[in-house]
Write the structure tokens for this entry.
Amino acid sequence: MPTPQATVADTPSTAALPYATLLAFTRYVDRSGPAKAAFVGKLRKQRETGGGFNPHSRLIKALKTDIDQHTPGTHLVEVNDVVDPRWQRLYASLTAGAASYLTSIEGQGCRVTRTNDALAMIGSLPVRISAHFGLRYDDGRSEAVRLHFDEDPPTADLIMATLHLLRANMDQILPHAEPVLVDVRRGIAYQSEATKGADVDRWLTGEAAGFAAMWNAPQH
């Protein structure tokens, strides 16, 4: 399969197809058996009812501010104190690992830069591919950083799928950057090697076909 870089705008017939974010698609890929169908059903229900909320936005903003101001987690500590009480336990579980990630890039002369979303076709499935932020380093390197907030660490399949899709669409997201997936709770950054691209494309195309079939299956 060719690298999935065609956009939905290039394919008018896709209007009725399911639409997935990178987060949703990689979570689907990471499941097996009946759990895949249950996940798609829940996602479809959320889409129909307008449900779903991202509680991580303030933490992401604090992390980016600490990177830009070269502060060792100062803003992460502050946001943990002022966030809505219902999210304080979640933030407490994330900030230590986020501070560890800050330490890992400390002294490398990096600053936050903007990234763009890419709307890609994986087989016939539209998927919005996005990073949480970009980093530019003084030595000329750049990275497109995706954050993993889940309680469980990312599996090998989730890491592979995320980094591969970011790399395949990097011309739109942040040209010449390397994809990075950061496990925020544990402060671990994962990077990929550009190998076995065709095999991963075939695997993800099959997963996308399954996602679309489950999405379009009649509801009971």
In short: The chain has eight helices and eight strands.
